[in-house]
Amino acid sequence: MDTPYIYYIPIYPDDDCSETLMHLFSGEPGLDTKILELLRDLDRREERGEGVDYIQEFEGKLGLKRVSVRQLPRDRSRFVPITT
Questions:
Q1: Nearest to 56 by CA among 36, 69, 38, 70
Q2: Residue 72 has pLDDT above 90, yes or no
Q3: In 3D, which of 23, 14, 10 has the Cα closest to residue 48?
Q4: What does each C-alpha distance from 31 to 1, 9, 37, 76, 84 come to in angstroms?
Q5: What one-character-per-residue DSSP string does the chain give?
Q6: How confident is the model at residue 16 (pLDDT cuts 50, 70, 90)?
Q7: How far is CA 26 from the centre of its chain?
Q8: What are the two backbone dihedrals, phi and then psi, of residue 10, each rounded to the nearest 5 degrees?
Q9: Which residue has the higher pLDDT, 78 or 18?
C-alpha cells in the first residue's frame, strides 16, 4: 500500500474574524512551491473582489484531493495519571 502525501494548507475565509481554516489534502510529493504560488495567486484574485473557491482550485489545478478527518473519542477511564 502506498502512503499518501498529506498537505496541511491554511485557507483564510473571506470575513473579518481573522480565523484560519486548515484543510488536509492528499497528493503527489514535491508540490510545496506550486501550492504556495497558487495560494498567492488565489489571494490576489480574492483581494481584487473575485469569488475564489480555494478547494476547487487546488483539486483542479494541482490534482490534490481533500481529505476528511474524523477524531474518534477514546475511553480514557482505564488510564491513570502518571505521578513522578
A1: 38
A2: no
A3: 14
A4: 21, 12, 10, 39, 45
A5: -PPPEEEEEEE--SSSS---EEEEEEE-TT-HHHHHHHHHHHHHHHHTT----HHHHHHHHH--EEE---PPP---TT------
A6: low
A7: 9
A8: -80, 135
A9: 78
